[in-house]
Amino acid sequence: MGHSINSGYSAWLKRDLLLAYRRRGEAASPLIFFVMVSTLIPLGLTPESSQLAEIAAGMIWVMALLATLLSVDGLFANDYQDGSLEQLLITPQLLPMPVLGKITAHWLTTGLPLTLASPLLGVMLSLPTSGYLPMLCSLALGTACLSLTGAVGAALTVSLRKGGLLLSLLVIPLYMPVIIFGTATISYAIDGLNWLPPLAILGALFAASVALCPLAAAGALRITSAN
Amino acid sequence: MSWQWFHRLGSPRWFYQTSTRWLPLLALIAAAILISGLVWGLAIAPADAKQGNSFRIIYIHVPASFLALAGYYIMAIAGAVGLIWKMKLSYMVMKSAAPIGAALTFIALVTGAIWGKPTWGTYWVWDARITSMLILLFLYLGVMALQYAYHSIDAASKAGAILALVGTVNIPIIYKSVDWWYTLHQPATIKFTSAPSMHIDMFLPLLVMIVGFYLFYAVALILHTRSEILRRERKTAWVRELIEPEAR
Amino acid sequence: MTMYFASFQDLLAMDGHGIYVWSAVIISLLVLAWLIVAPMLSRRALLKEVARDILRERARQSSSTNTQGES
What we know:
The structure holds three protein chains of three kinds. By secondary structure, chain A is mainly α. Chain A has one domain. Chain A is built from ten helices and no strands. In chain A, helix 7 crosses helix 8 (132-157). Chain B has one domain (60-236). The longest helix of chain B has 34 residues, at 200-233. Chain B is mainly α. The model of chain B has no long low-confidence stretch (mean pLDDT 88). Chain B is globular, with a radius of gyration of 21 Å. By secondary structure, chain C is mainly α. Chain C has one domain (8-70). Chain C is built from two helices and no strands. The longest helix of chain C is centred in the middle third of the chain and has 53 residues, at 18-70. Chain C starts with 7 loop residues before the first helix and ends with a helix. Classes of the chains: A mainly alpha, B mainly alpha, C mainly alpha. Chains in contact: A-B, B-C. Chains A and B meet through helix 8, helix 9 and helix 10 of A and helix 5 and helix 6 of B.
């Protein structure tokens, strides 16, 4: 009799959520970064409301992307350091499922808070009213894609020293389609166009990522174990 | 039985010895085709009606772009072969393909930028093709950096192969996204290779240059792979025999 | 085939576009040349390294056989 393949998913999801809760301060830093950096933009550019409105959608997306990038490094790094990654690798379940559990926990503690905090940034950056709902939808889907893709990069660099910077270099090109369609969703809405098509493409990217990224990340993790 | 040739193909020693024989001829042919294509394109072909003589940069820019993209797929396929059949030689080819592809992407970007100045007054335009080329350069640099960071050659090769394959899946997605993004934002219709129907007198030298660049790529890849073979196999007997043929 | 340009000077100048075309050509040729020269140099260096290893090993072997001969 085997374990059902889902048992690996929820077990590791719960574990990572518990660990994140214990390190709440650390887990909150991407969110704090996200909000604080939004004050840099008017300081660096202009406080002029109309000008901010033009760039608000793009800037919020860029900052969400950078905040996720900062946090995805820790997805496997903590486990690697305290030896629990070895435990993950000898688990009897198929490896992609626990990995997907960890990624889900990562999104719940990073992407979801960012998404929920984004209306606050929208107000600060004078985002037009029609942009709020599209922003929430695109960030929810998009940050999930970012967590998934980032996990592949994190798995590839987990055993390296200074892996964090290399991780960013590897993963940023893969993030570009997400940000293109994420911001387009918001811009379409602001311009009065139907914003569901770009959101649908974002959904397709999400579906592909859910299917493929856990496999790629699992494969990459096996390399580091053999290392 | 039928797999024998395939596994022999995977022997670094066989590759080194065979390429020693054939490389000079290949290099000669590549040089001949490149030189004749370049002379043809730069000095003999007619100038473009709208762009004048600056369009001649196309004879380097387009072949370089083709090879930059093809080179990434070659690198990824080499990585896949290495992962599936655990073939050392394939990993060596993959590692060699990365800097060559990155250099060609660099050439494509620089020639594209230089071409842009007389054509529409600015060195850089965020059009779909240039932006995709830039992202391709980043992907190449990532594969190089990742392999460099690992100390174990085996882990470096596997990680590089996985990253190359992830990039391969993403390249069409990235290109389509950037293309869509650009048509969304472009103020006016600017096409990079503006000739929808190129005159045959301009097209033929371009064809020659493309063939020449493919041959050049093969020569460069073989040269780099030979170096990599020596680097990884320098403790073996056959490499030592290259220096000192066994006198006994 | 006849040349498009009337003279060599015209070929260099290219109606004012010469600096663009020729700088693109020169930069490209330099990069392509580096792609050929770099592996050739590294191959030579690697073969030298192997030769050195052989000499070193031979020296070690001869010194050990000498000590063996003494006993």
